[in-house]
Amino acid sequence: MNIKPLGDRVVIKKIEAEETTKSGIVLPGTAKEKPQMAEVVAVGPGGIVEGKEVAMQVKVGDKVIFSKYAGTEVKFDEVEYTILKQDDLLAVVE
Amino acid sequence: MNIKPLGDRVVIKKIEAEETTKSGIVLPGTAKEKPQMAEVVAVGPGGIVEGKEVAMQVKVGDKVIFSKYAGTEVKFDEVEYTILKQDDLLAVVE
Amino acid sequence: MNIKPLGDRVVIKKIEAEETTKSGIVLPGTAKEKPQMAEVVAVGPGGIVEGKEVAMQVKVGDKVIFSKYAGTEVKFDEVEYTILKQDDLLAVVE
Amino acid sequence: MNIKPLGDRVVIKKIEAEETTKSGIVLPGTAKEKPQMAEVVAVGPGGIVEGKEVAMQVKVGDKVIFSKYAGTEVKFDEVEYTILKQDDLLAVVE
Amino acid sequence: MNIKPLGDRVVIKKIEAEETTKSGIVLPGTAKEKPQMAEVVAVGPGGIVEGKEVAMQVKVGDKVIFSKYAGTEVKFDEVEYTILKQDDLLAVVE
Amino acid sequence: MNIKPLGDRVVIKKIEAEETTKSGIVLPGTAKEKPQMAEVVAVGPGGIVEGKEVAMQVKVGDKVIFSKYAGTEVKFDEVEYTILKQDDLLAVVE
Amino acid sequence: MNIKPLGDRVVIKKIEAEETTKSGIVLPGTAKEKPQMAEVVAVGPGGIVEGKEVAMQVKVGDKVIFSKYAGTEVKFDEVEYTILKQDDLLAVVE
């Protein structure tokens, strides 16, 4: 993929419910922030963002939980991605 | 458990009312922020969060009081967890 | 008591109206922020809170005036406490 | 008086309209922030407040103009006081 | 006049429309912020205000344009003044 | 002109639509922020504004694009000007 | 083009849907922030913006994804441009 996020943004690709079930995680539909699982496909350079030093803590391939409503969705070569700020990622799942 | 929270987030597991009663703490249902007790099951690395140094003050196994409406709920291997910022924890109970 | 507040939070126990009258202070019910008197029963460590150095200025046993709507109420061994940020305390009464 | 305000707070006692008239100041009832005159009866220590250095610029006995809606009112030994932040004081009148 | 504004506040006295016309400036009644002309009658000491260094850039006698809705009005010896923050002054007119 | 803007403010004079057309720029009436062209007629000193160092980047005579709703309008010697913060200027047109 | 954006602003020219399709990217009309592709045609100098150091990370010719509602639209020599802050750019596409 050739989308390079700016600043402290990351590009993620949602993991389908089927895959989610296999890994043993079920995310409840009623949660108020609607968390979802995704795989990180691109990571911005971090550095000074809005005057503050930001170190990127995730890397390509990480499986992450994020808030569904965060970020902006784009479709690229028929695949949907979400571009969001690293701070909208809640956790890495291993 | 293999959820690794990012930044200053922690993962907690709510302690059921029965256990709460045993430990002598009763949390009133009418409190406006609805505090609850939980056990810390994972702690983020802290460090620079939104440009500010954050030192993690809780550790895995701590029993904590938190605001019910804070954070995001996820279900993992049939167990429900909440991911929230350390600042949404009010106190440690010993 | 074994509730240890985190960061710049304190745990206080409200002083009943009777005691209040004895000490000569009457807090009007019509005040818009509804101040109340309380005794400090636990004090957080202070330190870096939200990236800012906070020095704790109250100690266990201090009688304080606070805003009624601040903080979170918890019941412990049949006694009600309030957990709030030190900045929600207005004054110490001696 | 033995109310010791915390941080950058001050305790003031309103000056009655009669006294106000004598000193030659009349504060219009229609002003949108309703300023009033008061005498400073206690001054907090200042220092680091919300992470910022605050130097106290008023002293006990100063006559000040403040915004009526600022602060919290308390009654002590049958006298009403207001506890507010120094920044809610507009000016010292000499 | 003996009103000493605190911090970065200034005390101004509005210039009547007649005087305004003489100096060649007409301020439109339909402007959304309703600017007005005034003369500076007292200037606060500046210094650290809300944790930031403020240098006072106006002096007593300056004619200034300010936003009508800014600040607090007080009447002193039958004269009306406005107390506002220096940042609510838009420009000095010479 | 003798209006001296304070801080990081500038005084601009709108360029009429006719002139705008000559220079080849047409600003659409439907744009949500309604940008307009203007000429800079006075520039504040910059320096520390709200605790932050501001360097002035425009000079008298610059043609600028600005947001129509920003700033305050004043009429001086029958000419209308707008006083606004430099940050409300979007670009310089050469 | 002779529009020189100020501070951390950039001037972009939207890429038509046809071009977008050729490059293999389709941006869904239902996305809540309506991202779009554009080409960067001018880049501000960066430097200290609102008191914070901003380094410009895009250059003229970069293809970028941005939020449709960000910025201000201007028409210049019959071509429409958008002036926005660099932080409103989400990613560079290569």
UniProtKB/TrEMBL annotation, chains A, B, C, D, E, F, G:
Q: How does it assemble?
A: Heptamer of 7 subunits arranged in a ring. Interacts with the chaperonin GroEL.
Name of the protein this chain belongs to: Co-chaperonin GroES
Would you identify the family this protein belongs to, as annotated? Belongs to the GroES chaperonin family.
Its biological purpose is as follows: Together with the chaperonin GroEL, plays an essential role in assisting protein folding. The GroEL-GroES system forms a nano-cage that allows encapsulation of the non-native substrate proteins and provides a physical environment optimized to promote and accelerate protein folding. GroES binds to the apical surface of the GroEL ring, thereby capping the opening of the GroEL channel.
UniProt GO MF annotations: ATP binding; metal ion binding; protein folding chaperone; protein-folding chaperone binding; unfolded protein binding
Top-level taxon: Bacteria
The reply on keyword Cytoplasm is yes
| Record NCBIfam families | PRK00364.2-2, PRK00364.2-4, PRK00364.2-5
Q: What is its main location?
A: cytoplasm
Q: Which SUPFAM superfamilies match?
A: GroES-like
UniProtKB keywords: Chaperone, Cytoplasm
Q: Name one GO cellular component term.
A: cytoplasm
The record's section on CDD domains has: cpn10
* Localization (cell): Cytoplasm
